[in-house]
Amino acid sequence: MVRGRLYGLIAKEFAQMLRDPVVLFLIFWLTTVEVVMCTMALGFDVKDLKLGVIDHDRSAASRALVRELTSADTFVLHDEFTSMRQAESQLQRGAVDAVVEVPPDFGARIAAGRRASLGVVVDGSNANVASRARAYIVEMTASFTREQLMGSMAMRAGVQPVVRVWYNPDLTNTRFMALGMLAQAGFMLAVILPAAGMVREKQNGTLEQIRVTPIRAHELFIGKVTPPIVICLGSLFPTLLVLRLLGVPMNGSLTTLIGLDLLFLLSAVSIGVFVATITTTLQQAMLTSFFGLFPLLFLSGSIAPIESMPAWLQLATEISPLRHFIESVSGLFLKGAGIGELWPHAIALAAISAPMFLTSWLLFRRQW
């Protein structure tokens, strides 16, 4: 009997959503057209990039170069490594944005007036950050040559960085923006669909009719949140097709993507339920939804880089599920990262989603 009521509620919600042409258009628009439009239109600048250094030389010249690279607000020395293998794990986790490798004979070649090369690896999963990082390193090594070694033979020799960009070698900005729009589209749908569906029941008076039936509060809650989650998970696949057409490679596991997306959608749906419990009309629900969506969007790192935000605002981004999901899909698609590298973001998504989902259930049960 209980299972039959629950199945009936879920089937009813699916039927209502799929019969509504506005909802179907919204799903299509957000997961396809808007992904393409916003991907092509947005861009940003960066600062406070996290720099890793591998100094095989340990000379006065190599230390002066590191000081030059970190003298402004462009780079912050994040860590020093002993090998590229050690630095690679930090690059894959997104802990550093660029790594500079100084060869063992760097100081000697500079002193002898011979050309010296630097190894530079840039994380290209965020093309805008990577292009800026590469340009800054080239500019600062030139400044190092002019200012630190003025008048010496090294001035004629110069320093020639050899830059390699990993994960996105042609620095195509559309890849990162497309992945950001994948997350934003799913988040907006998962907030709006349950909020609109529940408020519509209030406006039509059907919620009062349901209250006099044998349906329990938890059955109605499950019936309301299950279809939006399933529909948003399903909308992931047309977006994946759009990403493929935009040239975004899928280097990670689809199973990992679906699991992370499910954690992410739970937090979004819980916001939608919360909005429905505090509003009584569709207009109120839509306005309230966007009131919460935009701050989370700005804190996600997809509109403006987190590295350029004030320190207190960077800390606030940790509570944005959008930030963790965007960083997860960026690592999964472009770097081929698996759950071994993405587990901190998975835990963060679970830590954000669980209390939000519990709070939305408690508010829903109280109103019921």
From TrEMBL:
Keyword Hydrolase: no
Record's subcellular location: Cell inner membrane; Cell membrane
Domain ABC transmembrane type-2 per the UniProt entry, residue ranges: 126-367
Coiled-coil zones: none
Key word Iron present: no
Family (UniProt): Belongs to the ABC-2 integral membrane protein family.
Name by which UniProt lists this protein: Transport permease protein
